Amino acid sequence: VLVASPLVKTSLGSSITFMVSPRWLFSNMNERIMSLVIDFDDGFGFRKFNPKVEQKVIVHYTKGGEKELIV
Questions:
Q1: Which residues contact 49 (CB under 8 A, 6 or more apart)?
Q2: Is residue 25 within 8 Å of residue 54, measured between CB atoms?
Q3: Residue 69, by phi and psi: left (phi above 0), alpha (psi -120 to 50) or beta?
Q4: Checking DSSP bridges between strand 55-60 and strand 15-20, what pairing results, if any?
């Protein structure tokens, strides 16, 4: 089971900055999270991230509206 949560409910503008950080990844399993993939609903599909490295991701949306992120 995986849970993801945004830091803000809404955002204005077409460019949104997301932060992927090992500080915010928690597991109740004995195994470590080895990979992380996220679809930001921007038309580029899933992107792979190293869960051990803090990364800033700037996503550019061409259309406004509600977005569905898949982790």
A1: 20, 35, 36, 37, 38, 55, 57
A2: no
A3: beta
A4: antiparallel
| CB-based contact 20:57 (threshold 8 Å) | yes
Q: Point out which residues pair with 38 in neighbouring strands.
A: 47
Residue in the block written with tokens 């869960």: 51
Indicate the residue type of 10: T
pTM above 0.85, yes or no: no
Distance CA 22, CA 25 (A): 5
Binned average pLDDT, 10 residues per bin, the chain of 71 residues: 71 87 81 87 95 92 90 87
